[in-house]
Every structure is written in C-alpha cells, then in structure tokens.
Design brief:
mainly alpha, elongated
Length: 190
C-alpha cells in the first residue's frame, strides 16, 4: 500500500515536471532575449529593406496594368507577380526561423519602440502592396499567392511577440487592415 501511495506521488511529480519544464525553458529564453533587442532590430531592418525591394517590383508592375483588364490578361499579370509574392513569403518565413533560433545579425541601438516601428513599417509595406494588387487584379487571381504570404506574416508576428512582449498589440491594427482588405475582396467574389 505504501509503495502504491509513493508511486502515485512519483508519477504525479513526473507529469508535473514534464509539463512545467517547457514553460520554464520558454520563460528563461524570453527573459534572456528581452535584454538585447538590437539583434532582432537588425534582422527586422534587413527584412524591411528586402521586402521594400520586392514590393517596389510588384508596384511598378501593377502600375503598368490598365484599370479594366480582361480575364486572361489578369491571370497572366497575376502569374508574373508570383515570384515577388513568393520572395516576400520566403523572406518572412526565413525571418521567422531566424527570430526563433536567435541566429540574428548583431547591431546596437535598438529598443522596443524601434522594433515596433520597424515591424509596423513591414506590415504597412505589405498592406499597401496587397491592397494595390487586389485593386488592380482582384482576389480571385492572386489568392494562391497571398495565402502563404499572410500565413508567413502571421508566423513572424507571433515569433516576434514571443521575444518582445506587446508586439501584437503594437501592430494589431495594421494586421487587421491586411485581413480586412482580403476579406472585402472575398465579399466582392460572392
């Protein structure tokens, strides 16, 4: 009877430690990361520059497209934008992996407000390009390119929020604008 009683406590302790252990590891990583935001800031600044290059290519391509474009031409134009949308998706996915692994280029002089500002500019840059694309081509032609883009943006925002508490609150309204633009385009398809 005593052995069974002690076994229950041993198993209970094992379960409790296996559940609490990942939480303790996560908290210690977060505290360590909160001390130095400069690495994350440098990575986000590099990401912003790369995204701006791709969105500039997309926007210059979209500017050449006339207002009322035919179905076949819209499909062709959307396919021509696919590499840039995929490049932005790849950049966001790579940045997400970098943030999680903390293998980020070093720089100094970043704080929470700078990270929030850079992250907001990244989201705003993507928002402007998505809205312009939806205006010119409609959602039906580009939904297969925008879905992975929005999902990788979500992953990046969640990863940054783990490192810098409050990041989602800081850029939440802009992310809502991205989702609203895609949602309004979906309503237009109905």
């Amino acid at each position: 009877m005593k052995a069974a009683f002690l076994t229950v406590f041993a198993i209970g302790g094992f379960i409790a430690s296996s559940i609490a252990n990942p939480i303790a590891i996560s908290n210690s990583v977060e505290k360590r990361q909160e001390d130095d935001y400069s690495e994350l800031g440098a990575a986000l600044t590099t990401l912003l520059a790369d995204i701006q290059k791709q969105t500039a290519i997309i926007n210059s391509t979209l500017e050449t497209i006339p207002e009322n474009v035919g179905e076949e031409q819209a499909t062709t134009d959307a396919a021509s934008l696919a590499p840039q949308f995929q490049a932005i998706t790849d950049l966001l996915t790579a940045a997400n992996a970098t943030v999680v692994k903390r293998a980020i280029v070093e720089a100094r002089g970043f704080g929470k407000p700078d990270i929030f500002k850079t992250l907001s500019i990244i989201v705003y840059e993507i928002l402007g390009t998505v809205k312009f694309t939806l205006f010119k081509l409609g959602l039906g032609k580009v939904v297969i390119y925008l879905t992975p883009l929005v999902l990788s943006l979500k992953g990046l925002l969640f990863s940054v929020d783990l490192v810098v508490k409050g990041a989602l609150l800081a850029v939440g309204p802009l992310v809502n604008e991205v989702l609203k633009a895609v949602g309004l385009a979906l309503i237009g398809l109905v």
